Amino acid sequence: MDLNRYYTKWSIFHGAFFGGPIVGGYLLSRNFKVLGNESRSSSALWGGVMLALFGMILFLLLPDEWVTTTLTVAIAGFWAGLSMTVYLQFQKDELDTDARDNLRPASAWRVAGITLAGMFVYICMIGVFSVPTMLSSLSLPGSNSGAEASLVEHEANRIEQIAGSLSGSTIRTEDTARSVYFEPPVTEEHASTTGMYLEAIGVFSNGPGSIPAVKLETDAEGFRLLLPVSSTARGTKPFLGIVESIIVDLSRWLDAPVQVSTVSIDPEGNRSEITYRESDFSASPA
């Protein structure tokens, strides 16, 4: 390094503005070295590095909407102003004395090269500290894909069980007693809505692959939906509200009266069945 060359205030200003505190600290460090002050030279260099780390962490912690061009320019101007203040306070007078007549300012090309190098280092530092955040936002292969695929398959099976057999065909599984039958011409949208109702009251609560014995059949009064439900859930206010929604919607879609028969088996094996009709709810007080 040519110890007869120093960096002017404008070289330091532009270097710190475009290259950040690392460049500003390095240029100030070289000037202190030219002046023979090794202690301040090291302090300036490490001070620039620490300020660069501080600025990088600040940008990583700030919300994305705060990181605007205006803020970036303001921070760059702060680094440049701080570097120039150090130059004017601790270096200018000594560099301007007659005893330093043998010193020459460094070329603009040298300053530009140092600035580009500083920018590269700063970008690399940001990249290194951003890696953990990027990795945490990625879904690693096999971590959630299996569970998501299972849920998607379960949802598709549920819609197929309700909507796919609406034309009168029967979807059967290995356990034919748990097949789902839907004979009336209900649309897929209606079946999907009904499926959400059924899931809300626990009909599909056994997880992916479970197919409860849900059956919609005709009788003398219209249609009857037979549902297996939990004996503990039956009769609660949320449960009754969903049953009412099923009756009202299916009655409208099928243009015929619909009743819901809920079947449950207690731990002792006793079977009980309760049938609900639209009149049971319309007659209740508001």
Notes on the structure:
- With about 290 residues, this protein is α/β, with parallel strands linked by helices.
- It has two domains: about 5-135, no CATH class; about 145-280, no CATH class.
- It contains ten helices and eight strands.
- The protein has helices spanning about 10-20, 20-35, 40-60, 70-90, 90-95, 110-135, 145-165, 190-200, 235-255, 280; strands at about 5, 105, 170, 180, 215-220, 220-230, 260-265, 270-275.
- It has a six-stranded mixed β-sheet.
- The longest helix has 30 residues, at about 110-135.
- The model is unreliable at about 140-145, about 160-185 and about 205-210 (pLDDT under 50).
What structural keywords apply?
286 residues, six-stranded mixed beta sheet, two-stranded parallel ribbon, 10 helices, 8 strands, 56% helix, rod-shaped
Low-confidence regions: 139-145, 158-184, 205-211
Q: Give the fraction of residues assigned to helices.
A: 55-70%
Largest sheet: 6 strands, mixed
Record field, number of beta strands = 8
Approximate shape: rod-shaped
What topology, given as strand order, has the largest sheet?
3-4-5-6-7-8
Percentage of residues in DSSP E strands: 5-15%
CA-atom Rg in angstroms: 38 Å
Along the chain, the helix and strand elements come as EHHHHHEHHEEHEEHEEH
The count of helical stretches stands at 10
Quickly count the domains: 2
**What structural category characterises the helix and strand content?**
alpha/beta
Question: Which oligomeric state applies?
Answer: single chain
* End-to-end gap: 90 Å
Q: Which whole number gives the mean pLDDT?
A: 72
